[in-house]
Amino acid sequence: MLDLRAIAPHVSGGSKRQILGVIADVAARSYGLEAAVVLDALLERESAGSTGLGHGVAVPHARIPGLSGMKAVFVKLDTPTAFEAVDDQPVDLLLALLAPETGGSEHLRALASVSRRLRQPELRQQLRQARTADAIHALLVREARSTAA
Fold first, then answer.
1. What is the pLDDT at residue 14?
2. Angle at 79 between CA 13 and CA 81, to 5 degrees
3. Which pTM value belongs to this model?
4. Is 61 among the residues known to form the active site?
């Protein structure tokens, strides 16, 4: 679900919209999607309520027309940014989930799984210390395998 090319380990902060724009650009490059379509879908979802989970984490998500399966984008911000999170703390770790329009409960299961994993203080600390896309990918893949077991 998370391609190594879809990890951006050093992103400048900015506004919530700018960060979602970065996610859309990474998704476009990594998965051959239209950045504008991804950004519009993410903004529409955010307008329903912030996807900031707290503890510096957000899980933006949206259904994307034409997508054939679940995809993810991970962004680590150099400077935490206001994201209207439930705890009012700025966000620096974002794992965006992109789901097919027709996808049923797979989207909800993935969202629940990612949210549960990113609530773990140790994983958040390790992700913040990771400097490369490879290191971040290894942490997320290892964590996914350990929670599936």
1. 87
2. 60
3. 0.92
4. yes
